[in-house]
Every structure is written in structure tokens, then in C-alpha cells.
Amino acid sequence: MNKAVFQAALAIPVILLVAVGIAWAGSPASERAWNWPVFGLCAALAFAINWVVFVPSFLGKTERYFDLTGSFTYLGLLGLALGASGGVDARAWILAAMVAVWAVRLGSFLFRRIREDGSDGRFDSIKPSFVRFLMAWTLQGLWVFLTLSCALAAMTASEKVPLGGWALLGAFLWLSGFVLEVVADAQKRAFRSDPANRDRFIASGLWAWSRHPNYVGEITLWTGVAVVAFPVLSGGQYVTLISPVFVYVLLTKISGIAMVERRGMRKWGDDPAYRAYLERTPALFPLGRG
Prior knowledge:
The chain is mainly alpha-helical. Helices cover 69% and strands 1% of the residues. The model has no long low-confidence stretch (mean pLDDT 91).
């Protein structure tokens, strides 16, 4: 067993333990269905969906449906939370709408991109390995559950709280982040569709202000979701506030910026213009330096 496979084998139980811990913390205040806390059932469903799709994906050695499965998992958990909870209030519907709009938009965007590109370079080295590929799908289950955990805790909470200023602030943050992500993706797509830009990197539009403006948008919108959910949380449910923090760590340290910029250095690392772009442009927020 080589080092990469060994690390993946260790990562899977760690991922599951993290999910169990969050589910345990958020379940006492959750409504129940079939004698189980709905919040905990959502955690189980997140992994079940990804493991089911992993099987044919591994057999076919394809990541074609990875991102689409992620979006479907979000929608599946929202459906379970809304359908299994006894009382669904306005906050629950607002949270569900926020996440559903984001999930459908991003999932369809990524699926269309992989259909056009043919493959996702992130998976080239891991999809031949059962353990490493399984770890990626298991991580996606955790990714969906953790990012959604704050919203799920509020949606499934047995105690309801009327909407107020927190909901307005959260909705503003979500809308700002969503627009930023959509515009950044559209600009990059338009740039890549121009044959003159073949094998070039984008440094215009929002990408002149941040090397990853789409990630800035995603972090911002998930912060907005957490802000909308916050007034309902109590006790162990406050652990779910890790949601936007997890999004930040995932995008900056694990599967986002780190992977994208490694590919960028392999492709343009010898280009002085790319080096200058990295030097002058923050990785995320324009007020900081990458």
C-alpha cells in the first residue's frame, strides 16, 4: 500500500467521525421522524447518496457525475429536512430556497463544463484507486453535510424563532455572494470560449481583483446562510456554525485554491506575466494578500 492510498484509508474513518460528531451535537434539538432525529438522518443520507453513485463511477473510472451528485445530495437533504420535519416555517423555506438555487446553478454549470472538457484534472491520479476515489466521494458527503449543517439545524429545530434583522443581513450576504460567484464563473467561461485565449490565464474583470473571485462568492453566500440560521440555534447546534469556516478551509487548503494554483504553476509557472499576476493579485479578498 503506497503512501497516498494509506492516507486515504486513514482519512475515511476520520471523515465519518467528524460527521458523527456534528450529527450528535445537532440532533438533540432536532425534530424526529421514524424515532430518529431528522438532523442525524440528513447526515446519513449525505453519505448514502455519494456511496451509491461511487460504485458505477469507480467501475467506469469516471468522475462525470461527481459534481452533479453533490448538487443532488444538497437537494436530497433539503427534501428530507422539509418533508420529515413536523413544522416548516418561513425561515426553513428561505434557507431551502437559498441552498437549492445555489446547488442547481453550480451543479448544472460544473456538469456542463465537464461534458465539454471531457474530464476533471483533479481526479486523474485518484480514480484508478478504489480507496482514494472512495475517499473523494466520502469527503463530498461530509462537504455537503457540513456546509448545509447550519441550515439543516435551523430547518429541523423543534423550536421556531420569528424572522428579524439577522435574516435580512444573511439574505443580503447570500445574494451578494451568489451574484459574485455567478459573474466570476461567467467571465471565466467567456474568456475560455475565445480561441485567442487558448492556453492563457484570465486576469481581467473580477479576476483582476482576486485570483479566485468565485470562491470569495461561495464563502460569502455560505456565511449568509449561517447568519439566517443563527437565531434558531441552541446548545450543541452552535457547532454547526463551523459551516462557513469549513467552506473557507476546504476552498483555501484542500480542494480549491491549493489544487487550482498547483495546476497553474505547472502550466504557466515559467511565464513572467503569470508570476506578476500572482504577486499583485490577492488569492481571495482584495484587502488581503495571497
